[in-house]
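Complex record, two chains
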Amino acid sequence: MSNHVIEESNSSATKELEQKQEKEKEEEEDEDDELRKLLLPDVCNLPSVPPSAVESNFAIYFALDFMKPGHDQYVYRHANGLCVIGLAPSHVSFKDEGGITAIDFNVGKSDRSGVKVTGKRKKNAQHFESNTALCKVSTKNDSYIVRCCVKGSLLEVNQQLIKQPELLNASADREGYIAIIMPKPADWLKIKASLVSVEEYKKLREVS
Amino acid sequence: MEQEEEKVSNAFIPSSLSSSDLEQVLHSLPSNALNHLFSLGVCVRCVLRLFGIKGPICASVDNGSENPLDSTTSNEAKLCNICLGILQFRFYDEREKRVLQKDTAYDVALLIADMVKQERYQFDTFSLEVSIPPLILQNETSVWSYMQKKYGSEPWFQEKLHTGCISIKDALKFSLINPLENLLGCKSSLCPFRIRLTYTHTKASEGVAKCSENDGSCKRRKTGMSLLFPSNSFSTPSESNLIGERPLSSSVEIESFDSSKLFLKSASEPCHFSYNCSRTPFYFGGRYLKYSRNVSQTRWIIDDERMGEASVEEIIGTKVLQACRGDNYKFHAAGREDIDVRMLGPGRPFILEVQNTRLVPTEQFVNNIEKMINEVENKLVRVKNLKLVGSDGWNLMREGEAEKQKQYAALVWTSRPLKDEDFQQVSSLKDLKVVQRTPIRVLHRRSPLEREKIIHWMKMETVAGSSQYFLLHLCTQAGTYIKEFVHGDLGRTHPSIGSILGCTAEILQLDVTDIKMECFLT
């Protein structure tokens, strides 16, 4: 008699447990569904070509004919104040046949690619003027000096260019960037006045 | 006589004593030492303390009842030169901003109890803490040494040594605890709710000034030195009431002072007495979800302007703080996400530290707080599994924080349509090593370094209606910059999704979908 009772209570206990486990599983699945709904976007809200990372995160400026005609460079300024320097599409070097074949950071008094900047305070960074030479790019027949454009501390140069100068031809606006400079707020304001915006650049250089 | 003394110091003392009983106790003590102490300006309770007499005598000796050996009434009585009025219940009250003279310990307890009730603290036990000026301990040490020097050879001295003197703190606590327990309606114990009594004295600086007039042999001390200096030249009690300075006798040995010049000045002011109560912090642990792309994790203000519309820390913190009536809160989370990144899935573990709560949260209370936070209209943030945690909560959260894996879902655009082979190629990459130079967006405040991170697995999910948008699910090592892994950060993160697929890739949205940590999951 007592055995029978125990058996019954056991099976109802396991039933309870099973029900609990099933409920938990259901809840989990519900949560997963909820998550999926949150993640999936509505395609009609998406642009066919979204803004690039550079367009989204930087203010884009151009320095035209910097110290010499045709020496057009870009300056991407991040909200945190850092400036990325590179060759604008209208730079004279791109007009040469074959494009850029080599780059040399050993200009002026030091090899810009050799400096090691360390720490949060950016120790050892060299302080340059806007007209200080950053590097020299060479084409088949000619070479051109690329300058800082912005007065500040040189944080890094794009070492990849040394081994792969073709990056300058293929994507000067992204992977072919040349250097990153950190200007003081006052120095930035001074130079900003002489830079042009994307719209102005397009107009002046008749680029679409 | 000796037998009686034994009885007095070791026997149980009844709780109420008349002044004649007090007289009896006093008469049982060695009269030469007793008189000496009284003439040194030591109060009755300090004398009883020094003789190690425990029991309610300390409590029930009324300032109002006459000290049979001193005919002055309590108000005229001079401040004790050891306890500076503390055990005489005379003090400068910080709240009333004047000197008060209370008759009994009960009266002092009343003051304290009123303060506690004013703040409407919830408690079922309290812990009493007392802090007294170091000056007093120094005074006591010198008196003790003096007694040792003078009466060490007497037969009763050994016994007193055996019993030991009761410290001022203990005597005070002892006299206050019972009345406080009665007034507050609960027992005292070691617990997070603390009633703190702080006595301070301004005499400290004066003592130092006097000391510096000496020859160079005086040891410089930071705290005041108002000390009794025993000397062999004093043989009668009347001469031992030192006022003014006395030259040192080099043969006298006192533990910590060798050739310091000392003096005893009758204390003219009682101690400053301040009292308050507070509770040690409570810690709430749980997980939070962030549904908004315009809410930062912590309060973020630049040039007096808030970034984003709210912060997770404030949404959770202010609700909890309000509910338990605390003083302030501190928010600690296991990692963080950008303001424009949602935190979904099981959520991110956090601990909220709340200081000095007036209420004691129960489990039900904590559940209610969680509901309150989640029922807010705009549903920016959600809290799960909120509960009180002990100190182990910290360890759970910090343990392996750097090793824990995180899972994300990124909405990615590619510059060319993707095919099945692309999907398979991405899925096949397991434990992919990625080298990330410090992203430009944080380079202004972080060291320029190359950090190697691991992408444990990736899975691409198509987005209906597009061949160039897809959802990238990935599981990475803690500390991996996901956005940079997608767009490449001008080539400074390699490989990147773009470089793997041989095209340009951009990230439009990022969500954290799992934080693989064990804590606060229930």
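Note: Chain B touches chain A at residues 291, 342, 344-345, 409, 411, 413, 437, 440-448, 463-466, 469, 471, 483, 487-491, 504, 506-509, 511, 513 (CB under 8 Å).
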